[in-house]
From TrEMBL:
Transmembrane annotation, as ranges: 7-32, 38-59
Organism from which the protein derives: Candidatus Gallacutalibacter pullicola
Species lineage: Bacteria, Bacillati, Bacillota, Clostridia, Eubacteriales
Ranges for region Disordered: 65-84
Highest taxon listed in the record's lineage: Bacteria
Entry keyword set: Membrane, Transmembrane, Transmembrane helix
Record flagged with keyword Oxidoreductase: no
Name of the protein described by the UniProt record: DUF378 domain-containing protein
One matching Pfam family: DUF378
PANTHER family with a match to the protein in the record: MEMBRANE PROTEIN, MEMBRANE PROTEIN-RELATED
Length: 84
């Protein structure tokens, strides 16, 4: 559940940064009364924390992927075809 919330917040942050980069328009600031408004700052902080949390997703995904991949590399998962 926390991973999903973090992903949603990172997506919101990415869309906001894309809007800033392309249109020079800060959606969060527009919605909540400016960049210095308390609610805007809370959103920015939550997005920042979510991005830090999301770093762990990279490592967990890699560990799971490596583990799954290793199980397919074991000899019993392959059919032996003799060379002729």
């Amino acid at each position: 559940m926390l991973d999903t919330i973090a992903l949603i917040l990172v997506i919101i942050g990415g869309l906001n940064w894309g809007s800033i980069g392309i249109f020079q328009f800060d959606i969060v600031a527009w919605l909540f009364g400016g960049q210095s408004a308390l609610i805007s700052r809370i959103v920015y902080i939550l997005v920042g924390l979510a991005s830090v949390w999301s770093i762990s997703l990279l490592f967990r995904d890699r560990e799971n992927h490596d583990h799954d991949h290793d199980s397919y590399d074991s000899p019993e998962h392959y059919t032996h075809i003799p060379h002729t």
